[in-house]
């Protein structure tokens, strides 16, 4: 089999820098390796002091570890970002229209573009939301869309994260760290800013307050300090200047949600919730939940509080629904998709299942409800035993899985002990939806730190790097 060719973000050919990397590449060439090593140590120490950690599940040597940060930025030229931005705006707009539709008229189901059972029997579909009107018809106020570059350099959408997308705090802290370590670089490069994201987020949350509320009280609802992304919850609350609360800090009275404060109860209008639907309200969902607020759903359905993201958004980021997003764009917007999906085999279809079973060694197979890199098979990196075990899972419950070709993800140089070496990357831009759609330039670039690995998830040992969008 021919060795795959990977698109190199920095070099167009050996020792030939791409135009948008020329100034940085020349600077990097002149930089002593010892200085990079010192800067790396300084960054690690600072991140450790800040408590920027993430849980890596399954490791016996402790549940928390430092997020590996790479010193070499990923650089994207302005014209590429403009194309990505238009495509992301189009995609998230269609996804919000889809969510409104399936909880109201269900026109897309009646048109036969998506099998009704794929929606109505989906574990993430919430019948409790049927007919509920949400402010501005926005369900996914914050979306994290995972992008990869493959082949000759074309971008693809790998998945849509619409429930509680995380990682934006690492994007912000990475930029802050780069500006601290290498201020001279930002004097030489016109790098688009990202530091205003918390202000944009707060403005977006305030705009989606219940009707008639002029000065809304916004809070961030966290499951608590044991959660893998707790640093981000606390960070965003602090940056926005709003309260970080747990379920026990809130209560429902007189069809409203209140927060306990030292001055007495204070009404809450907008909740940026960072816990899943199942745990939001023990009276409506999981009765054993100690994380939510009893009665929250009834207040939400009455339009007396806004939840971001809305209850029931998970059905739109389920991997079994992902293949239909291009159809949604055509159906709701009457436009051709700007960004392409990765070709996807739906294992619930017998002919596609047969193809997947015959080609497991060459495919990536994912659970439709999976996240964080768990419950998946990367065929080319799997052993024969792992492939056969996964084959049994597929046969037993094919509708639980989708499969995709193993993409030749683009590479970007990172700093390792031996020097500078290429590693595979992806990109997660963060899209804010309100009265309009906005985003800061770039997003979070995640890195597969192990040589040859295609898994970039932080929970699977991946790292991150700063993402530069060069302004014209």
Polypeptide structure, described:
- The chain has 472 residues and is an alpha+beta fold.
- The protein has a domain of 63 residues: 2-Layer Sandwich (Dna Ligase, domain 1).
- Helices cover 30% and strands 24% of the residues.
- The protein has 13 helices and 25 strands.
- Strands 5-25-24-21-20 form a 5-stranded mixed sheet.
- A hairpin with an 8-residue loop joins strand 17 and strand 18.
- Helix 3 crosses helix 11.
Beta fraction: 15-25%
Q: Can you identify the CATH class of the domain at 344-406?
A: Alpha Beta
- The unreliable regions are none
Overall residue-averaged pLDDT value: 91
Rg over CA atoms, rounded to whole Å, is: 22 Å
Predict the CATH topology of the domain at 344-406: Dna Ligase, domain 1
Total beta-strand segments = 25
Give helix % range. Answer: 25-40%
Number of helices: 13
Q: Tell me the structural class.
A: alpha+beta
């Amino acid at each position: 089999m021919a060795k795959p060719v990977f698109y190199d973000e920095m070099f167009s050919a050996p020792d030939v820098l791409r135009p948008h990397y020329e100034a940085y590449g020349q600077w990097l060439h002149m930089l002593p390796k010892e200085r990079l090593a010192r800067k790396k140590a300084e960054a690690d120490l600072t991140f450790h002091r800040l408590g920027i950690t993430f849980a890596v599940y399954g490791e016996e040597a402790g549940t928390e570890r430092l997020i590996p940060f790479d010193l070499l930025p990923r650089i994207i030229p302005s014209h590429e970002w403009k194309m990505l931005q238009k495509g992301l705006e189009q995609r998230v707009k269609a996804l919000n229209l889809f969510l409104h539709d399936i909880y109201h008229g269900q026109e897309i189901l009646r048109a036969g573009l998506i099998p009704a059972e794929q929606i109505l029997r989906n574990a993430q579909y919430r019948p409790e939301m049927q007919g509920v009107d949400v402010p501005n018809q926005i369900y996914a106020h914050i979306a994290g869309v995972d992008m990869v570059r493959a082949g000759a350099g074309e971008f693809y959408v790998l998945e849509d994260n619409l429930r509680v997308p995380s990682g934006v705090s690492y994007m912000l802290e990475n930029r802050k760290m780069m500006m601290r370590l290498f201020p001279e670089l930002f004097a030489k490069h016109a790098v688009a800013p990202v530091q205003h994201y918390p202000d944009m987020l707060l403005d977006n949350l305030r705009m989606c307050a219940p009707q008639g509320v002029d000065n809304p009280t916004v809070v961030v609802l966290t499951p608590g300090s044991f959660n893998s992304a707790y640093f981000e919850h606390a960070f965003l609350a602090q940056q926005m200047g709003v309260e970080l609360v747990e379920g026990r800090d809130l209560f429902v009275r007189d069809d409203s949600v209140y927060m306990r404060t030292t001055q007495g109860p204070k009404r809450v209008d907008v909740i940026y919730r960072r816990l899943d639907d199942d745990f939001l309200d023990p009276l409506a969902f999981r009765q054993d939940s100690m994380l939510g607020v009893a009665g929250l759903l009834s207040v939400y359905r009455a339009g007396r509080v806004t939840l971001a993201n809305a209850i029931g958004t998970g059905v739109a980021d389920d991997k079994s629904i992902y293949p239909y997003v291009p159809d949604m764009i055509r159906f709701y917007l009457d436009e051709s998709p700007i960004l392409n999906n990765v070709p996807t085999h739906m294992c619930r279809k017998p002919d596609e299942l047969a193809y997947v079973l015959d080609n497991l060694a060459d495919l990536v197979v994912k659970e439709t409800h999976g996240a964080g890199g768990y419950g998946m098979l990367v065929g080319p990196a799997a052993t024969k035993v792992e492939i056969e075990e996964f084959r049994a899972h597929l046969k037993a419950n094919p509708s639980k899985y989708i499969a995709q070709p193993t993409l030749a993800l683009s590479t970007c140089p990172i700093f390792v002990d031996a020097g500078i070496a290429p590693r595979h990357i992806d990109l997660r831009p963060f899209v804010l939806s309100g009265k309009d759609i906005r985003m800061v330039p770039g997003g979070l670039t995640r890195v597969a730190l192990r040589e040859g690995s295609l898994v970039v998830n932080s929970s699977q040992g991946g790292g991150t790097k700063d993402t530069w969008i060069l302004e014209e």
